[in-house]
Design goal:
By secondary structure, the protein is of the alpha/beta class. It folds into two domains: about 180 residues, Rossmann fold, CATH 3.40.50.720; about 160 residues, Dihydrodipicolinate Reductase, domain 2. About 35% of the residues lie in helices and about 25% in strands. The chain has twelve helices and 16 strands. The chain has an eight-stranded parallel β-sheet with strand order 4-3-2-1-5-6-8-7, with helices on both faces. Strands 9, 10, 11, 12, 13, 14, 15 and 16 form an eight-stranded mixed β-sheet that branches. α1 packs across α11 and α11 packs across α12. The longest helix has 17 residues. The mean pLDDT is about 95. It binds nicotinamide-adenine-dinucleotide.
């Protein structure tokens, strides 16, 4: 098989990172990105010398791009004619409209968490149900919280079996720079059960899940606490052993200075990661605690970058590049250099 040709629709918070992620996969080619307006992300792309070709979706005003000197490679239709698969990271709801265009062009697509589940054939997670996505035309990725949550729960489930989880999500209310969400100083509770718990059950139907979500006025990362009931008693040592082995889980300690979400964001910047991204979820070793037969722990979700690896897994599944989760996730991890810091898989 030649390189799989990939396009990105919507070069925003997620789209920029998806484009960078695809560009790093040696068995894929990023053909281009599509957007609507000369946003700051597009201006930054221009200032960086247009590493990715830009295509304009219907309704975009090309004159605005011309005025700024931003080169345009063609229309959305042109892009669709050159790719095998589109990664749709347009604002929630637009993906469902774009799907009609993907169907007409005879190409596959992967949608992000803001779309309804009905947009896709399979609600997808690279570790928990990769095989269900193999060869399918339309996948929908789990949202950022659900992606990280399932990583951790699936990790324990594979090692020891899990019957039940109860979660609390402390959810960052906006991404950095989201002025349209206002300048807030309040917490807000969602109706239970949170969609992430329901989503987990859709992908892992053998696990009973429920939870509560609290919106918090911060931008750098969600924190989720999980209480899990194993098929057998999972001790702190057993949980830690499984988490340490998982390439996409970074086990950290409060005593080392990882005090919270901001420490992980700052650490990613200190590592020199683009935009302060981190592909792994953080998991606090000092948060793992036994409660009777249950095990409880806290994870950090870097919401802007956490879904990128699982989306790369989605391309691998949909295009039939690798047949199993183990092979597909290993390839993604290799190209994104995930797990390198713990000497895993590379
Ligand atoms: N931001 C996060 O933390 C996060 C995490 C996981 C999943 N998601 C999901 O990813 C998707 C994208 O979210 P985002 O935060 O990146 O949004 P965003 O607003 O940052 O970016 C959306 C981009 O799409 C462009 N756009 C607008 N109309 C378009 C159209 N018709 N066709 C193509 N592009 C268009 C916008 O100009 C913008 O650049 C949503 O489904 C969201 O729920 C977001």
């Amino acid at each position: 098989m030649g390189k799989v040709r990939v396009g990105v629709a919507g070069y925003g918070t997620i789209g920029q990172r998806l484009a960078d992620g695809v560009a790093l996969q040696e068995d894929m080619e990023l053909v281009g990105v599509a957007d609507m307006a000369p946003t700051l992300a597009i201006r930054a792309l221009y200032e960086k010398g247009m590493p990715y070709d830009l295509y304009l979706v219907d309704g975009a005003d090309k004159g605005e791009f011309d005025k700024l000197g931003i080169p345009v490679a063609g229309t959305f239709q042109d892009l669709l004619g050159k790719v095998d698969i589109m990664l749709d990271s347009a604002p929630a709801g637009i993906g469902a409209k774009n799907k009609v265009l993907y169907e007409k062009a005879g190409i596959k697509a992967i949608f992000q968490g803001g779309e309804k589940n009905s947009v896709a054939d399979v609600f997808f997670h690279g570790y928990a149900n990769y095989e269900k996505g193999v060869g399918k035309d339309f996948l929908k990725l789990t949202s950022c919280n659900t992606t990280g949550l399932i990583r951790a729960v699936d990790c324990l489930d594979r090692a020891y079996g899990v019957d039940k989880v109860a979660i609390t999500i402390i959810r960052r209310v906006a991404d950095p720079g989201d002025y349209h969400r206002g300048l807030t100083n309040a917490l807000q509770i969602d109706k239970a059960p949170s969609h992430q718990a329901v989503d987990l059950m859709t992908i892992m139907p053998h696990v009973e899940a429920t939870g509560i979500l609290v919106h918090t006025p911060v931008t750098h990362g969600h924190i989720i606490t999980v209480v899990a009931t194993g098929k057998q008693k999972i001790t702190k040592e057993m949980a830690l052993e499984a988490f340490q082995k998982h390439p996409r889980i970074r086990v950290v300690r409060i005593d080392d200075g990882f005090k919270g979400n901001a420490s992980l964001f700052k650490y990613a910047r200190d590592l020199g990661h683009t935009r302060g991204d981190m592909y792994e979820i953080g998991l606090w070793e000092d948060s793992i605690v036994e409660s009777g037969n249950d095990i409880m722990f806290a994870i950090n979700i870097p919401q802007e970058s956490v879904t990128i690896p699982e989306t790369m897994d989605g391309i691998r599944a949909a295009m039939g590049m690798q047949a199993t989760s183990a092979e597909g996730t290993a390839k993604t991890n290799e190209y994104l250099k995930i797990g390198l810091f713990k000497g895993l898989g590379l």
